[in-house]
Amino acid sequence: MEMGNRLSIENVSFSYGKNTVLDNISFTCRDGITALLGNNGAGKTTLMNILTGLNKPSHGRVMLNGIDLLKTKPYPIDQVGYLPQNFDMYGNVTGYDLLSYVFDLKKIKKNKKETIDEVVERFHLTSVINKRIGKYSGGYKRRLGIAQAVIGKPTLLIIDEPTAGLDPEERTQFRKYLSEISKDSITLISTHIIEDVELYSQQIVILKDHSIAFNGSVAEMIAESITNIRTLETDFATLMDLRKKVTIIEEKRLGTDRYRIRFIKDKQDVAGSYQEKEISLENAYIYFQNR
């Protein structure tokens, strides 16, 4: 018997007028990180807005540990933490005031000071927590954003573009935060940065053309795509010709007039090409977007 938390998205559809954004989406995720991937306009943010109660689907339901999130009134805000891509707050409010407000909003039944102090220490906010948010750097704003999302230890965390606007060092640290907080909660992140999900995600869901193009683990995603990806070392003239004939997913210059390319296998193979023993998750993602 499987233990832990369970989020079940069942036959969810959403449209803006005649424009279909999500078409009968279904998947289930549990504790750990589930990465929601897709190009711009694929419906990732729309799905997150549905999960947080901001949008109402035309069809389907969302179940969190047996509770229908879309029908429960009021929305169970104490069970869900949310960090949007654009986490903009009033610049004259302090970080502590924001966390205090979220604590009260969620009606958390714990000691307020101890709860706030815990997330402040966890996300290394002590030096700035009493300063106005308008004085925060991008990295500190993102830390504050995740702190307000996890306060009260919600069952479900929804995070849109977790490392947007962060420098490489801050991105690495933020990924570690996500890995830690996802141990006892369902953490659903929406991103187009493959590096954000490659190391820590237990599950990957790819949205394409309003529906799910893939749902599985990193290993399954690579295994399903690797047999359809070919590698070839060639010269510039041949490279230019192949660009017209195949879908190239990676190009690397090896030296003077020598290139290594990876491309999606067509019905007719390219002479001299071969299947690699390993490919990157980014290669696999591009394959699913183009197959």
TrEMBL record:
InterPro entries recorded: AAA+_ATPase, ABC_transporter-like_ATP-bd, P-loop_NTPase
Record-linked PROSITE patterns: ABC_TRANSPORTER_2
Domain ABC transporter: from-to ranges: 7-234
Gene3D superfamilies cross-referenced by the UniProt entry: P-loop containing nucleotide triphosphate hydrolases
Domain of life: Bacteria
Keywords annotated in UniProt: ATP-binding, Nucleotide-binding, Transport
Record carries keyword Chloroplast: no
GO molecular function: ATP binding; ATP hydrolysis activity
Pfam families noted in UniProt: ABC_tran (PF00005)
SUPFAM superfamilies referenced in this protein's UniProt entry, alphabetically: P-loop containing nucleoside triphosphate hydrolases
Keyword RNA-binding: no
Similarity comment: family membership: Belongs to the ABC transporter superfamily.
Official protein name in the record: ABC transporter domain-containing protein
Species name: Caldibacillus debilis
